[in-house]
UniProtKB/TrEMBL annotation:
Pfam families documented for this protein: ABC_tran, NIL
Alphabetical UniProt keywords: Amino-acid transport, ATP-binding, Cell membrane, Membrane, Nucleotide-binding, Translocase, Transport
InterPro entries attached to this UniProt entry: AAA+_ATPase, ABC_transporter-like_ATP-bd, ABC_transporter-like_CS, ACT-like_dom_sf, MetN_ABC, MetN_ABC_transporter-like, NIL_domain, P-loop_NTPase
Ranges for domain ABC transporter: 2-241
Residues forming coiled coils: none
CDD domains: ABC_MetN_methionine_transporter
SUPFAM superfamilies named in the record: ACT-like (SSF55021), P-loop containing nucleoside triphosphate hydrolases (SSF52540)
An annotated Gene Ontology molecular function: ATP binding
Name of the protein: Methionine ABC transporter ATP-binding protein
Length: 343
């Protein structure tokens, strides 16, 4: 649905050139929810704005729904843009217009009659669960309700793509969850392709099918959300994942010499990473029984990523070295990733 080929965008500022996006190529399939994550300044907003040419890249190709946008004239581009809705962190609603008028705004030149527009607005407000607020003004709404209005407005022209630029960054966690759920619902109901940029791994984890990690204008890693969580490669990705997990705290405790991490002669601290296919519960009792190795869990974290539980356990294994090795081999045979953290 969306193909970016070698897209670059540079800004000229008083202090010189800023290479906001550097040679980015991406393929986003129809109906998927694609996340782009990175710290502030990584180039996410610029990249997503290149998808609807709010920013015009100086190099590369942008193809959306089979049309090469950089080759279109102004009126063709206006038509193509109608099929690309966008929502923003600060909602960008018109404060002097009611909710219904905000949602109706993109339909002004659609050729629809007044009655058809009113029917469409009604349907859209039902979709975002805000029917009872049709005649109020944005200032009378909560942040989450404002974003619902913005979503309804973005959907007015029946777009095929919805671009979400930090759409939940101004919202509290509970409201974030309800907006993400709404985005997921409309993605499924309307087979909408969603591109979502964020600096929060929690957001990506909750709804994205695939994710690209961006740093300094480049994509440093890309893949399915479960792969990225289970086998992150880039340093940046690892640090994003660490931000949503508590198990990395073990390294601080080891450094601080916490009593929890003090080891006897026949003990080691090991991390065990697993997903639903190799859940560890039975495994831990099996290695204790079969290999006579004690397994003491000192930390645990289970993430649910796209409905797949992914867990990390930090355990102290106690037993003589030969038996520990046999237990280790057994754990690995079950597909659980192991790493000795302290010996
Ligand atoms: N219109 C502009 N003029 C000059 N520089 C710009 C412009 N827009 C973005 N930049 C610069 O491009 C780089 C990437 O910015 P961008 O907003 O795309 O990053 P981001 O990852 O979305 O960060 P944030 O979440 O803080 O917006 C930054 O160094 C930014 O200062």
């Amino acid at each position: 649905m969306i193909t970016l080929e070698h897209v670059s965008k540079t800004f000229t500022t008083k202090s010189g050139y800023v290479h906001a996006v550097r040679d980015v190529s991406l393929q986003i399939d129809e109906g998927e929810i694609y996340g782009i994550i990175g710290f502030s300044g990584a180039g996410k907003s610029t990249l997503v704005r290149c998808i609807n040419l709010l920013e015009r890249p100086e190099a590369g190709n942008v193809t959306v729904d089979g049309r090469e946008l950089l080759k279109l004239d102004a009126s063709q581009l206006r038509e193509s843009r109608k099929k690309i809705g966008m929502i923003f962190q600060h909602f960008n609603l018109m404060r002097l217009r009611t909710v219904a008028q905000n949602v109706a705004f993109p339909l002004k030149k659609s050729g629809l009659s007044k009655e058809e527009i009113a029917r469409k607005v009604k349907e859209l407000l039902e979709l975002v669960d805000l029917s009872e607020k049709a005649n109020v003004y944005p200032s009378q709404l909560s942040g989450g309700q404002k974003q619902r209005v913005a979503i309804a407005r973005a959907l007015a022209n029946d777009p095929k793509v919805l671009l979400c630029d930090e759409a939940t960054s101004a919202l509290d966690p509970q409201t974030t969850h309800s907006i993400l759920k709404l985005i997921k619902d409309i993605n499924q109901k309307l087979n909408l392709t969603v591109v979502l940029i964020t600096h929060e791994m929690g957001v990506v984890k909750e709804i994205c099918d695939r994710v690209a990690v961006m740093e300094d204008g480049r994509i440093v890693e890309e893949g399915s959300i479960v792969d990225i969580f289970t086998h992150p490669q880039a340093k940046m990705t690892k640090s994003f994942i660490a931000s949503t997990s508590t198990t990395d705290r073990i390294y601080d405790l080891i450094e601080e010499g916490h009593t929890l991490t003090e080891l006897g002669e026949d003990e080691v601290i090991v991390s065990l990473k697993y997903d639903a296919s190799n859940a560890t519960q039975a495994l831990i009792s099996e290695i204790s029984r079969t290999y006579d190795v004690d397994c003491n869990i000192i930390f645990g974290n289970i993430e649910v990523v796209k409905d797949t539980p992914i867990g990390t356990l930090i355990v102290v294994l106690k037993g003589d070295p030969e038996k520990r090795k046999a237990a280790f081999d057994c754990i690995k045979r079950h597909g659980v990733e192991t790493e000795v953290i302290k010996r």
